[in-house]
Amino acid sequence: MNEFTILMHLLSNKTNKIHIGASKEEILKALNIHGKNESIYFQDLITHLSSYIEPLGLQIRFNPLSTRWYIAFDIFTSDFVSANPFEGRPRLAATLFCTLIYCLKNLGIAKIQDIKEIRKKKHIIEDLKELRNMGYLQLDEKLGKVNLTPLIGYQLDLNKLFIKLALKVKDQKS
Questions:
Q1: Complete DSSP assignment for 34-97
Q2: Residues 31-41, mean pLDDT to the nearest whole number
Q3: Are 72 and 81 in contact (CB under 8 A)?
Q4: How far apart are CA 12 and CA 170, in angstroms?
Q5: What phi, psi does 66 have (nearest 5°)?
Q6: Which of 124, 155, 167, 174 fits a 20 to 30 Å CA distance from 3?
Q7: pLDDT at 81
Q8: Which pTM value belongs to this model?
Q9: Helix or strand holding residue 115 (H, E)
Q10: Are the folds of 3-81 and 90-155 the same?
């Protein structure tokens, strides 16, 4: 097997419902790369593989929530291929987005009460339970807390989201 074959296997490996791909350390170990230039070699491999699979509509992405690298469809391709998991249920998307905002604001944990306030809904527990069943979050009703799973980082390009939100805030301040 060559390095690209091993790398493709690692990056497309689904270990469980909410973890896809491999961490940098797992990749370096599988390829038996070590030494002072391992980071440079790693970036070189990722860059070359990325340019190699780009014509297929694939790209290598990084999920900051799980610190794992994985293979994803290009955004333009994925619009045609994948379905919206919230189609017909915009309330779930809104609840998940509010949870994401509060989790980012509060070091990864959101209070159910805060989500209720921002959503302006009294009964969001069913939405949160449905999102938990879909694998997007963990719910502790006793403590009234919610935290995200890494699954959201695979289905949403968080870097682009943060940039767009920052630009939107900047435009509103101007």
A1: -STTHHHHHHHHHHHHHHHHGGGTEEEEEETTTTEEEEEE-HHHHHHHSPPTTTT-HHHHHHHH
A2: 89
A3: no
A4: 37
A5: -115, 0
A6: 155
A7: 37
A8: 0.63
A9: helix 112-119
A10: yes
pLDDT of residue 75: 54
For residues 139 and 33, what is the distance between their CA atoms, to the nearest angstrom?
A: 39
If you count them, how many residues does the chain have?
A: 174
Say how many CA atoms lie within 13 Å of 119 toward its Cβ.
Answer: 26
Give, in degrees to the nearest 5, the angle at Cα 63 between 134 and 170. Answer: 100
Over range 42-67, report the average pLDDT: 86
Coil, strand, or helix at residue 161?
Answer: helix
Query: For 3-81, which CATH class?
Result: mainly alpha
84: confidence class by pLDDT, cuts 50, 70, 90: low
| 156 SS3 class | coil
Is it the case that residue 170 has pLDDT exceeding 80? no
pLDDT greater than 90 at residue 26: yes
Which class in CATH covers the domain with range 90-155? mainly alpha
Domain ranges of the chain: 3-81, 90-155
What is the rounded average pLDDT of the residues 119-148? Answer: 90
